[in-house]
Design goal:
Layout: H1 5-33, H2 38-41, H3 55-72, H4 95-127, H5 129-153, H6 161-169, H7 172-179, H8 185-194, H9 197-217, H10 221-231
Helix pairs in contact: 1-3, 1-4, 1-5, 4-5, 4-6, 4-9, 5-9, 5-10, 6-7
C-alpha cells in the first residue's frame, strides 16, 4: 500500500500540529504551577494550537519533508517545532528543582499523546472496516511523531528538555559549566544528524516507546511498525 501526497498530508496534519504545540503548552502549564506566570500572561498557557503554531516549524518544514519524501521516493523522519513557550526560570519557586518538572512536561505530554493515538487505533478497529484503516494510519502517525519528539527532546543537550533535566540534577558547579554548552547545542544536534549518529542514539528510545504504546492500540508491535512504514514511505 502506498499513500499519495494528499493522503499523507491528511494522515499527518493533525498529529503533527498537536504533537508540536501541546508539547510547548505543557511547559507553560507546569511553569505556571511552580510560580512562573510569564507564558500565562502572554496567552500561551492554552491547549489552543493556534497560539503555539510557528508558520515555519509547525507547517512549512513538516510539509517540505513530506513533499521531498514523495518526490525522492524514500522514507523520512518527520519533525518540526512550535513557538517556544517563554519560561523565566528565576521566577520559579525553586528554580533548579522546578526546572526539572518544567522540562519533563514536554516529553511527558508527547508520551500521553502517543498513548492517546494508540487508543484511536483501537477505537477504529472496534468500529469496523470503514474506520479501521484511516484511523489506524492517523493513529500510527500520531504515535510515531510523538515518539520522535519525546526521544529527541530527552537528549541531554542544552537547550533541549533533556539538557534542562540534566542541569537540574547536576551539582551547581557542574551545572554552570554544562549550561555553557547551550549556544552550541543546535550545532551539535546538526552534526550528530549529518554523521548519522542521531538515529543510532534515538532508536533505542523509539523502540522501547513503540513496544510500550503498542499494547494500548490492540496491535502487535510488528503490525504497528508496518503501519509506520506505510506512512513514512
Amino acid at each position: 500500500m502506498e499513500l499519495n501526497l494528499i493522503q499523507k498530508i491528511t494522515v499527518w496534519a493533525i498529529p503533527v500540529i498537536f504533537a508540536i504545540t501541546l508539547h510547548e503548552a505543557a511547559h507553560g502549564y507546569v511553569a505556571k504551577f511552580f510560580g512562573d506566570k510569564t507564558a500565562w500572561m502572554l496567552g500561551r498557557v492554552t491547549l489552543n494550537p493556534l497560539k503555539h503554531i510557528d508558520p515555519v516549524g509547525t507547517i512549512l518544514v513538516p510539509l517540505a519533508i513530506l513533499l521531498m519524501s514523495k518526490l525522492l521516493g524514500g522514507g523520512f523522519i518527520l519533525f518540526g517545532w512550535a513557538k517556544p513557550v517563554p519560561v523565566n526560570f528565576g521566577a520559579l519557586r525553586n528554580p533548579k528543582r522546578n526546572m526539572l518538572w518544567v522540562a519533563v512536561a514536554g516529553p511527558a505530554a508527547n508520551l500521553l499523546m502517543a498513548i492517546f493515538w494508540a487508543l484511536i487505533i483501537k477505537l477504529g478497529i472496534s468500529l469496523g472496516d470503514n474506520y479501521t484503516q484511516p484511523m489506524a494510519l492517523m493513529g500510527a502517525a500520531g504515535i510515531f511523531i510523538n515518539a520522535i519528539l519525546m526521544a529527541l527532546n530527552l537528549l541531554p543537550l542544552p537547550p533541549l528538555d533533556g539538557g534542562r533535566i540534566t542541569l537540574s540534577l547536576l551539582p551547581n558547579r557542574y551545572a554552570y559549566r554544562y549550561a555553557q554548552l547551550e549556544p552550541y547545542g543546535f550545532y551539535i544536534l546538526l552534526a550528530l544528524m549529518f554523521i548519522g549518529w542521531l538515529g543510532l542514539i534515538l532508536s533505542p528510545i523509539l523502540a522501547v516507546t513503540l513496544v510500550v504504546v503498542s499494547s494500548f492500540s490492540g496491535l502487535s508491535h510488528g503490525d504497528l511498525v508496518t503501519l509506520i512504514q506505510i506512512i513514512t514511505h
